[in-house]
Amino acid sequence: MRSAWAPLVVFLAAPVSVTLQAQSMPSVVPPRLISIPNPDCRSGKSCHRTHGQVRLIVDVLPDGKVGEIRVELGDPVLAEAASAAAQQAEFVAGSYLGKPQNMDYVLRFSF
Questions:
Q1: Distances (CA, A) of 7 to 1, 2, 15, 16, 17
Q2: What's the rounded Cα separation, in Å, for the pair 19 and 44?
Q3: Does pLDDT of 86 surpass 60?
Q4: At residue 8, does pLDDT exceed 50?
Q5: For residue 15, what pLDDT band results from cuts at 50, 70 and 90?
Q6: Nearest one of 83, 52, 79 to 69, comparing CA atoms
Q7: Which run of H or E residues covers position 96?
Q8: Where on the phi/psi map is residue 83: left (φ > 0), alpha (ψ -120 to 50), or beta?
Q9: If you average pLDDT over residues 36-64, what whole number do you get?
Q10: What is the pLDDT of residue 44?
Q11: In angstroms, rounded to a whole number, what is the distance separating the alpha carbons of residues 99 and 29?
């Protein structure tokens, strides 16, 4: 009976080899907003005393600047003020497989 358990004990007591792999970078990293000015709706501007929501989709270029801006939602007067602010936004560009790429980013404004 002792000989039947001997191989099992040796098997359980054998050293186990574990290989740890470094965590790889994600293949897609979205853009990250660094800064954006507030929309200018001071007295005398067409958006002054106008309230609502605006949603823009901006194309973030590989250098972190804003390219094309599309209005997805909102009053045209507010969208114009939001677009002017969005044009001045600065981003850390998004990347695919470690290389900067054009990527869309959604900006939301409340007036």
A1: 12, 10, 14, 16, 19
A2: 67
A3: yes
A4: no
A5: low
A6: 83
A7: strand 95-96
A8: alpha
A9: 94
A10: 87
A11: 10
Enter the tokens of residue 47.
Answer: 């958006």
φ, ψ dihedrals at 107, nearest 5°: -110, 135
**What integer pLDDT is reported at residue 26 of this predicted model?**
72
Cβ atoms of 71 and 107 closer than 8 Å: no
Report how far Cα 100 is from the mean position of its chain's Cα atoms: 13
Task: Report the distance separating Cα 69 and Cα 34, nearest Å.
Answer: 17
For residue 60, give both structure tokens: 């973030």
Contact 45, 81 (CB under 8 A): yes
Two structure tokens written together for 44: 């005398």
Higher pLDDT, 16 or 97: 97
